[in-house]
Design a protein that fits this description.
Blueprint lengths: L4 H5 L4 H23 L6 H10 L2 H12 L5 E8 L3 E7 L5 E7 L26 H21 L7 E5 L2 E5 L2 E2 L2 E2 L1 E2 L8 H18 L1 E2 L8 E4 L2 E4 L6 E2 L5 H18 L7 H9 L2
Antiparallel strand pairs: 1-2, 2-3, 3-5, 4-5, 6-7, 8-10, 9-12, 10-11
Helix pairs in contact: 6-7, 7-8
């Protein structure tokens, strides 16, 4: 695994960053792509890879290291259109998940529907960079609220600009198994997820709004929900629609696996009385 801390520590003068970025980041990500089998289909994909480590992101990582929230980064855990998640290590050797949102991603304007109308967020900017930073804070806040209300989620540890550091769920740099890949699911798994959805609604007053078998870990016989960026407060005007979609996704997955599920309409009635 490649250690990025030395590269970050070399940046003493902000004015020197731009001159160093092109060479260092390009060489680093070419090695990264080869070592971790990141598929790069065209020029745009490679530009997005480079954007993960733009000047702002490098300086943000540097700040997090200076604040003792992170010692260095290892390999890629997960890669998507909006963010990339890395295996990070703290000074005490503890593994953490470091989620870096892409600062030029065009996807975030499509995500305004999950922010506008949420009473927790006012004066929402349309500036792309600021919007991404708001989205990062939103995920941190959702995770913290869920965690503090006893729901199994990765514990949020630190946040700065477009970078979120969380508890690492997995072993030796490999994330835990996704529910979608679990060979055998049981009634208890279904009932557990439904109980999480209810607790999120009733205690944390949050709806995940993007819940599916692809953002649930099964780790040491426990189910852990992650990826809370889309999560909304229950007072959001589209709350019922988001909740219904979450329940439909979960019911569809477990039904395909032969598990008896409760009708979505019944579950909605239990939660919101409509």
């Amino acid at each position: 695994m490649e250690n990025f801390s030395e590269d970050i520590d070399d940046i003493d003068d902000v004015e020197d960053v731009d001159a160093r970025i092109e060479k260092k980041v390009t060489e680093r990500l070419r090695r990264y792509d080869k070592e971790y089998k990141i598929r790069v289909k065209d020029t745009r994909d490679f530009q997005i890879m480079e954007e993960v480590f733009d000047k702002t992101s490098l300086l943000t990582l540097n700040d997090l290291m200076n604040e003792k929230n992170l010692s260095y980064l290892n390999g890629v855990i997960n890669s998507g259109k909006e963010a990339r998640v890395y295996w990070g290590v703290k000074n005490d050797g503890t593994s953490v998940a470091v989620k870096i949102y892409l600062v030029v991603s065009s996807e975030f304007r499509k995500r305004l529907i999950y922010i506008e109308g949420d009473p927790r967020f006012k004066n929402i900017t349309k500036n792309n960079r600021k919007l991404i930073e708001l989205w990062t804070r939103k995920e941190y806040r959702n995770l913290l609220t869920a965690y503090n209300n006893g729901i199994n989620v990765p514990k949020p540890l630190a946040i700065k600009r477009n970078v979120l550091i969380m508890e690492f769920i997995g072993e030796d740099g490999y994330h835990a198994e996704l529910l979608v890949n679990v060979k055998r699911v049981i009634d208890k798994d279904y009932n557990t997820i439904i109980s999480y959805v209810k607790k999120l609604y009733r205690k944390a007053h949050i709806i995940h709004a993007d819940l599916s078998e692809f953002n649930i870990f099964k780790y040491r016989n426990k189910l852990i929900i992650f990826d809370f960026g889309s999560g909304v407060h229950i007072a959001h005007p589209l709350a019922k629609s988001f909740l219904e979609r979450d329940l439909n996704n979960i019911n569809h997955f477990f039904s395909k696996r032969g598990i008896n599920t409760q009708p979505t309409e019944k579950l909605l009635l239990e939660l919101i009385g409509q």
